[in-house]
Amino acid sequence: MTKDVIALTQRMPDPSAMLAGLLSGGPDNLVDMAGEGAVVRLCDAEGRPLVSVEAPLLVQVDGEAERLLGATPPALPYWWTEARATTGVEEAERLAGTFAARLAALADGSAWPPEAAQSLAVVKTDGVSVASTPDAAQPAVDVLTDKVAVVIMDRPVIAMTAWLQDAIRTAANAELGLQVVTPPGTMLSPAVRHSLSNWPSRWVVRDEQDGYYDGLSGAVVRWKDGMFAPVLATDATADASRTPVASSYQEATATGEHQLAITFRTVHPADERLVLGGALEAIWRELTGEPPAGWGTAEPANLPWSPRQMTDLAYERAPEPTWFVVVGSRARPGLATVRVSRTKAGVEEYVTLMFGYGGDEEPPVDALPRAAEQLATRHRLLSMLVQLRKAQRDLTVPPRFEGPGVPLAFVLGAEEVRQMPGDRARNTPLSQPPVPLGPKNCPALYYPLPGDPSDLSGWQDFERLMRHLKGA
Predict the structure, then answer these.
(1) CA distances from 238 to 298, 397, 406 (A)
(2) Range 446-461 burial, b when 16+ CB lie within 10 A, else e
(3) What is the C-alpha to C-alpha distance for residues 160 and 195, in angstroms, rounded to an integer?
(4) Residues 69, 31: Cα–Cα separation, whole Å
(5) pLDDT tens string 376-435
(6) pLDDT for 309-365, tens place per residue?
(7) What is d(CA 19, CA 302) in angstroms, rounded to the nearest whole number?
(8) Cα angle at 137 between 134 and 139, to 5 degrees?
(9) 212: which strand partners?
(10) 398 by DSSP, 3-state: which?
(11) Where is 338: in which H helix or E strand?
(12) 126 in helix, strand or coil?
């Protein structure tokens, strides 16, 4: 049985519905609050949490339940209420299922996964106890050591939920790594991938043949000295240590699907006229013909697209940085993460954006120069890199090998070009000269990188360009 159970309801769960859900274990369970009142916890007799319930979230963006759960939700808008059971306690898992089933019955909806929420009956929890603190002190963390926080999750897509954000923040504050353990077949949302790519954080996949392996690198791992760590190959030596790669990770199949991946940075003056998200919307419209569908500070993205609301939230949180996730429509899978931070130069947006395409679909490569020119002339672009990757159309990250992307173009903003000494930015070692974008007296430069997808020539050209621009 899964540890996460979610109620998707047409109506907001009112106090009576929440009370009925919280009484799933009978009237004797203790209840407390966490997260400044955003989390309600059903506890055992010692006050340790059996089930943690997050405040209901109003979802106004189409396709998020389908993307993250494979579930069919009520009509928009609907309410998303998560309950997480303490790992390894069967009664807690049944308690979470009953909680979600009662909410679904009383607030007109359904529960995911359906098999976990089939009973409305009271779950007997007499004599049940769970792990002592600190393991149970943080709702999203299952195991806590002096090296890592471990989260065990069983969902179709591991998304950047409020639960997971809390775990990442808690681990970072304690100077620990975060390790997420999942069953085979689980995917990552692109929004999570970067957070699990730095040692000792990792995505750990259970595997019948090799036990456990890293879902991003394929390295076979074992639990050792308080964390999952790579094992050494049998023929490894002190001078040549090697790690075996899991067989499941190497079982990649060609589907013809691919992704257009774009990263860019913009910087704006910190004044009252600033509106964030304009550069992202401009490139999204140029490449898809429509604006983003929604945004949020976690997944699911729950708010309709609104640059003004994003700006207001970032302003309220300043000078602390703000992270957003932005999603597209079902017709063209698209997802972006945006990090807004204050720097000496002003307000900086760092954007990672990707769109998915099927085997019979062509990415709009011809539109890239136009999109780059909009960012350079209207949105204070610093730099941009565009890649084409052999990867899944739905943008999820599978626990198997996906080859590196092929760089298609690099763009240097007008101010960055102006600061280059002499004609260094224009006279490059590449076979194709850069294309000027914008005003002739102060242009940005678009560098085509016609790399061959079958080899590394595109990355070699990119490396030569970067070394040249840096004066190396």
Answers:
(1) 44, 34, 35
(2) bbbbebeeeeeebbeb
(3) 9
(4) 28
(5) 999 999 999 999 999 999 999 999 998 888 999 999 999 999 999 988 999 999 889 999
(6) 999 999 999 999 999 999 999 999 999 999 999 988 899 999 999 999 998 999 999
(7) 25
(8) 135
(9) 206
(10) coil
(11) strand 334-343
(12) coil
